[in-house]
Design goal:
The structure is a homodimer of 353-residue chains.
Chain A: E1 8-13, H1 19-39, E2 43-48, H2 53-59, H3 65-71, E3 76-79, H4 97-104, E4 109-116, E5 121-128, E6 141-142, E7 147-155, H5 156-172, E8 177-182, H6 190-202, E9 209-214, H7 215-221, E10 233-236, H8 238-252, E11 259-263, E12 268-272, H9 278-282, H10 292-304, H11 308-326, H12 339-351
Parallel strand pairs in A: 1-2, 1-3, 3-12, 5-10, 8-9, 8-10
Antiparallel strand pairs in A: 4-5, 4-11, 6-7, 11-12
Helix pairs in contact in A: 1-10, 1-12, 5-6, 10-11, 11-12
Bound molecules: 3-isopropylmalic acid (2 copies).
Chain lengths: 353, 353
């Protein structure tokens, strides 16, 4: 429990591309909101450099050892997007830093809220974050020139803990409904295990209704304006969570608008769900990158470490700025305002609520 | 080449639930359109019973041996939906009959067109249909009570042939654009192989533009009304094809409106992409099931066996009936018309174009 803690260390990881630009803005907002407790030494913001693609390429690791050691000295982490090397890039084919961090810090619950009140959308996704199709990283097998094999891994414990987290939240929030999404009609062994686990756990939550759908038809159901508001809390194996949350975020304004909480027993990490947009930086437009998503992630971080009230203030300020943005007056994307100006505007709104 | 053939055998497989109801209607439409060539003996419609869940359960096989032998005497197959057993069902946990048929008859290309002219949507999906996450069927491993493993299998040949089919179509149709969808940033070995194969093949089609996206963001891009019309021909590994085509069909009116062609070197099978809706039958409403999707599939079959003109006539008739349907005058779903009445209406429209 964070409330009882004398000191909370928040790691701030810039990442690649636009990451350092937008993360700096989110950091300013955190400093603004937490200034008193920072002065008192209860909150320590620790900037962790070095999770750059150049460093990762140099040591051939998704997370350099010294960075990982530093991350482990933090209680919670705010992380900017990192670049995942792909073919044709100048870097070796190392694993995604996100994916590695989730696994190394055992951040098993990836919680992604998507809310569009005017459309009746209020979804909270609980994405399993350490196993499934992501379990083995890049350790698939090229058996020979013709044949490649990857593995999907599902464990009982790994399934149980994310499903319980989803049911706990469904009960606590009074939403009382959990939708389990798998492809258990085809991926019978692993997804079947996940679905079985959900059915077993549901029995301990008589007040929570459970239903289940396959991922293919779920992507259609989210589009269906008349019926999608029936979904409240969704729990999914890693890959389906990855897929469905991007689609869901689109109804809210795109992946640029969604924050993502990666929560484990010991650590928690909060990030934007969009990419590092390296081209914006090479074209000299890094300062125009939209910090909205990572500031939202900072809000989730505040809530997680027990600053409920400040988290709510920030949420409200972001909603106001979001409205403002829709009027195309001030936004990184549409009017040429910088990320800094946007953060200033958020802080101004926080000062005069 | 079908044009040169003296005799073409069309297998008609009813399947389960509403399958036999709607398949019978599609068969009537085929008989109507092909009546002359049926009389001449050039076309033989062969009804294949026995692909029912009861029979499959009795022999514990996704496709009973005698049914498979009969299927192999056909050139093309029109197939109604089949029920895939799931936990809690009274049947053993046998594999999906669709999935098994695609593999047994080596129907490697699952072609799914989605077209909504008024929304600028004209997508043709080329879904790899025999490998990927579907390759091993239900043969995953329960290592112990805690640990379950599934396998994803990608071969060079399996990738090449579907990617070539997509590029060939893009060129032939003049659409000249192929979008490759993978999750190669995470599923590096198998999806990486698929993406590499696409890049290599693209070099042989200089007039066809290729781009590639990850499946997560693709589900968002299909929602984006301003930009989705940029997509023309899409090629995807099995699971992503499964997922994205359900979402795509939703913009056209739901999975009930889309037909699906499963094409191999020797055989081809055409089906509705919706399920068998067994409840409609147990509730005595089987005759009200909407045959629209399987009649569309019959149209794809006609085109495949060289009856281009008749396929176009049927397409036009379906478009007219579709409009009629929107006026809520005659539709299985909205006004209580039966599937038979709908098929009658399609044939009437065909007679008075
Ligand atoms: C960047 C990528 C590795 C990552 C994922 O696949 O999990 C991203 O899409 C996400 O959803 O956080
Ligand atoms: C019924 C199911 C096994 C099948 C699939 O997963 O391929 C269906 O969703 C489809 O798209 O044809």
């Amino acid at each position: 429990d964070f409330k009882a803690k004398d000191k909370i260390v928040i790691g701030v990881v810039g990442g690649d591309g636009i990451g350092p630009f937008i993360t700096a803005e989110a950091q300013r907002v955190l400093e603004f909101l937490l200034s008193e407790d920072i002065k008192k030494g209860r909150i320590v913001l620790k900037v962790i450099d070095g999770l750059t693609i150049e460093n990762r390429a140099a040591c051939g690791k998704a997370i350099p050892d010294d960075v990982l050691a530093e991350l482990k000295t933090c209680d919670v982490i705010l992380k900017g997007p990192t670049t995942t090397p792909r073919e044709g890039d100048p870097w070796p084919n190392i694993e995604s830093a996100n994916v590695a961090m989730r696994r190394e810090l055992d951040l098993f619950a990836n919680v992604r809220p998507v809310s569009v009140p005017e459309k009746g959308i209020d979804w909270t996704f609980y994405r399993e974050n350490t196993e499934g199709a992501y379990a083995i990283g890049s350790k698939g097998i090229h058996v020979n020139d013709d044949l490649a094999i990857d593995f999907t891994v599902t464990t009982q414990e790994g399934s149980d803990r994310i499903i319980k987290a989803a049911f706990d939240y469904a009960r606590k929030s009074g939403k009382n409904k959990v939708t389990v999404v798998t492809k258990a009609n085809v991926i019978k062994t692993t997804d079947g295990k996940f679905l079985d686990a959900a059915k077993a756990i549901a029995k301990n939550y008589p007040e929570v209704e459970m239903d289940d759908w396959y991922i293919d038809i779920m992507t259609a159901k989210l589009v269906d304006e008349k019926r999608r508001s029936q979904f409240k809390v969704l729990v999914l194996p890693n890959l389906y969570g990855d897929i469905l949350t991007d689609e869901a975020a689109e109804f809210q304004g795109g992946v640029g608008t969604a924050g993502s909480a990666n929560i484990g027993k010991q650590y928690a990490m909060f990030e934007a769900i969009h990419g590092s947009a390296p081209r914006m930086v090479t074209e000299g437009r890094g300062q125009y990158a939209d910090p909205c998503s990572i500031i939202r992630a900072a809000g989730m971080l505040l809530e997680h470490i027990g600053y409920q009230e400040k988290a709510e203030m920030l949420q409200k300020a972001l909603d106001i700025c979001g409205l403002y943005e829709k009027k195309l007056v001030l936004t990184g994307r549409d009017t040429g305002a910088t990320g800094s100006e946007y953060a200033d505007y958020v802080m101004e709104t926080l000062s005069h609520p």
